[in-house]
Every structure is written in C-alpha cells, then in structure tokens.
Write a structure and sequence with these properties.
Layout: E1 6-11, H1 12-26, E2 35-37, H2 39-47, E3 52-60, H3 66-73, E4 78-82, H4 94-108, E5 115-119, H5 132-141, E6 145-150, H6 157-166, E7 168-171, H7 176-179, E8 180-182
Parallel strand pairs: 1-3, 1-5, 3-4, 5-6, 6-7
Antiparallel strand pairs: 2-8
Helix pairs in contact: 4-5
Length: 205
C-alpha cells in the first residue's frame, strides 16, 4: 500500500519556549540563553525517513534574529514570519497563519488524506472550535493521520491525550540531546547528537 504523504506544520516559538522549560530538568547545565534548536535534526525527526510533501514553519522575529530563520529555510521548509506587537511584544496572528495552511492542505488534498505532523504544544481555543487541536480533529475526521511532536512538560494535556488516542504523540524530551545544542559564540558548544529513529513510531498507511 502506498504511504500517505507527509505534511509538516511547525509552530517554532512553541517548540523553542518548551525546549527551555525542558532543559531545566533534562540538562540544567544548558544555559537557556544559549540553547538552540537544531532545525535539521528536528525536521529529520518529524519526517522519520518519509518523503515530505509539504512543510511550513511560522513564528515571529525581531530583525536581529533573521539569521536564525535563514537556517530553517535552508532545510527546505517554507517559513512565514510575523512582527511582534509594538506595544504588547506578543506574537501577532502566528497561530492563525499556521491553521490557514493546515486547512488549505486538507481542502486541496480532499480525498487524498495524508499524515499531518504537528510540532507544537498549544491546545488553546479547543472549546471554541478554534486552535490547532480543533483543526487537527477536522483533518482526522477527513481521514488524515495525526502525529504530534511536543514537549511533554509544556504540551496541552487535552491535546496530548487526544493524540495518543487517535494517532501518535512523541515527547520531544526523548530526543532532547539530538534536537538541541548550545552556542555561546566562544567555541564552547554542546553539539547535537545523531537522531535515533528506532523508537520513533510512525502512522500506518
């Protein structure tokens, strides 16, 4: 049977913030200000040796951090950035932008349901029929496989339990030293380890 096409939806801010929280328990010696996400390794974990049909990452950025996003674009992922609010300093429309891409793919591939791989942890808005989980449920009802990769420590409990019940939930803590590294620009760096996919479950076709 032909494998379902893989579609990756990546909420980078949520992943990065969760990594800092996880580091405090997994590797306290990692300075949170020097902690970085290894984009290539995280993409490898998400794809799990399957061809990627589509991948989109969204986030926000002050101008001085644009070079960080350039690294992600170099992995072949489409990147969309949004300015933080000038007064609130909070992200503007990031979640909604990613959800638009999710629903577009669900519509464009109607009758050709794929595997939605979601990198997040944010389950807000569920009871109002909005948010990532609500849209993932819509996709699942249309025949899509669902895989959620998130930090167990910070993942929305409702989303985590739902993913375990209908699809796959992968705690990123299990791959912490492969998908993160530290960089203090002085040559003293913790490098990321190779990604071991042996215990990484994948959806059945």
């Amino acid at each position: 049977m032909e494998k379902k096409k893989v579609f990756i939806f990546w909420d980078n801010s949520n992943i990065f913030i969760g990594a800092k929280a996880a580091a405090m328990e997994i590797k306290p010696q990692d300075d949170p200000y020097k902690l970085r996400i290894d984009f290539q390794k995280l993409l490898q974990l998400a794809a799990a040796d399957r061809p990627i049909e589509y991948a989109i990452a969204v986030g926000s950025v002050p101008p001085e951090l644009r070079h960080v996003w350039n690294r992600l674009e170099n992995t072949g992922i489409k990147v969309e950035l949004f300015e933080r609010g000038s007064q609130s300093e909070k992200e503007q429309a990031v979640d909604q932008a990613l959800q638009v891409h999710m629903l577009r793919k669900a519509f464009d591939y109607n009758g050709q349901a794929g595997t939605a791989v979601m990198l997040t942890g944010d389950g807000k808005g569920f009871f109002d029929g909005v948010g990532f989980q609500a849209d993932l449920e819509r996709m699942h009802k249309k025949g899509w496989n669902v895989e959620i990769l998130a930090w167990d420590k910070t993942c929305n409990l409702r989303m985590r339990e739902w993913a375990k019940r209908v699809g796959i939930f992968i705690p990123l803590e299990d791959f912490y030293e492969s998908i993160t590294f530290t960089d203090d620009y002085s040559g003293s760096i913790r490098h990321s380890k190779p990604v071991d996919l042996k215990n990484r479950p994948i959806s059945k076709s």
